Amino acid sequence: MRWAVFFFLATVVATCNADCHIFQEGQIYLLRPRFGAAGHRLEGLDCLSWRLAVETNNLQSWGTVPMSCENYIGHYMLGKQYRHDCELVADAAIKYAKGLNLSGDGKDIWIFDIDETTLSNMPYYAQSDVLFGALPYNDTKFNEWVADGKAPAVPGALRLYETLLSLGFKIVFLSGTKEQFREVRTANLKAVGYHTWEKLILKGDADKGLTALAYKSKRRTELVNAGYRILGNSGDQWSDLLGDNIGNRTFKIPDPMYYIG
Amino acid sequence: MRWAVFFFLATVVATCNADCHIFQEGQIYLLRPRFGAAGHRLEGLDCLSWRLAVETNNLQSWGTVPMSCENYIGHYMLGKQYRHDCELVADAAIKYAKGLNLSGDGKDIWIFDIDETTLSNMPYYAQSDVLFGALPYNDTKFNEWVADGKAPAVPGALRLYETLLSLGFKIVFLSGTKEQFREVRTANLKAVGYHTWEKLILKGDADKGLTALAYKSKRRTELVNAGYRILGNSGDQWSDLLGDNIGNRTFKIPDPMYYIG
């Protein structure tokens, strides 16, 4: 009951500040409460909570970054936290990959999505008329950016890629990018350091009308039917990591800028 | 190439501080770099990255919270952010639930895990000999806490629960708790406000030896075979939300204190 009271106080009392120690030991104290004196929730979206809900797939089919979070997402993407979050995903994937025994028959593969997984569109999204996804998606403008072929690598991705190659993995890129961009994407991947791969799967006419989840499931199933073993699967969207034949382990790269279902 | 240089600078240059503006427009600037002058990564685990990797299932089968993150996790759990993260999950689930058309035949269910999903063990985990999961799990001690039946509700959970009942959902609690605790858990649930449910499924002798993922998949499959439609599924562990018959939508409640596979 004491703790029920704690939760109550923690949410209702509006007079506590950072000096209000609940526990002296371990320096645990009550931070600024988010609830008003009458128990009503304070106005305003907590952008940290919004980002966590996006990364855990609790929020789905959202269209744009909430305008009130544009500044927060911009700082997150350009500051150290996004880079460090990406590096830790690479660390976890490398630790997992090094613990595996590969067959050596060339059928052990790691699937990488491209956008926000191996190539970063952050230079595009940072523009003042894109606002890190807080303004509606513009297909024409984004395709012009892709056609430029100037995307840098996502932090940590090249380190994982090189480690996987050295361990004997074959790399498969599986992207929602359309076939018409094959040449420029190939050049972009090579320019930043992705120098070799088993397959580069892009979206063709036969995939038209499929959701991203259905398209990726279909192509992964084709790989499995061809005898490949999907040991790892890296993507920034949950539609990369759910569905059929998702692989033995999936790795979610942060991306709070857009949602693809 | 300009952006490759940006990533390079952002990771290597060690002289930049919060006044170092990359973009004047939109107040986007480079935060404190995480890499030393020679390109080596700075020592120390970034606890925010660690928590994100846990919540997105990138880190699996971990035993304890890293000791260097104990203080951070304690502040997170007891401060406003955990509560607010939980409230936003409830908001998202309520928004989804209100958009559904229920059949009215009493077969539309929402599955809730118990620990860290509907009942909070934070009073236990905050103890100085538990340290928010930074010390190894002690089965005897934890069972004593469960037997006390004093767990408060997880923030946001009662609000979601009441909304679901008012919409016509039947509630199913599906927990890894053992059958021997049925009476005390029932009393605990009722004491904090969970006053009614369709089923309270606990782990029996027939479930011995199953992983959490296998046990929960098996029990959900039984529900589906009995004609229930799982429209929502809330849990703090990915083993609640992956496997067979996971439901139409899953909702991941934050829990950086322990891992159950």
From TrEMBL, chains A, B:
Keywords attached to this entry: Glycoprotein, Signal, Storage protein
Keyword Glycoprotein annotated: yes
CDD domains registered for this protein in UniProt: HAD_VSP (cd07535)
Where would one find the signal peptide in this protein?
Answer: 1-18
**A GO MF label:** nutrient reservoir activity
Tell me which Pfam families the record gives: Acid_phosphat_B (PF03767)
State the family named in the UniProt similarity comment for this chain: Belongs to the APS1/VSP family.
Give the function comment from the record. May function as somatic storage protein during early seedling development.
Q: What is this protein called?
A: Acid phosphatase 1-like
Protein species of origin: Olea europaea subsp. europaea
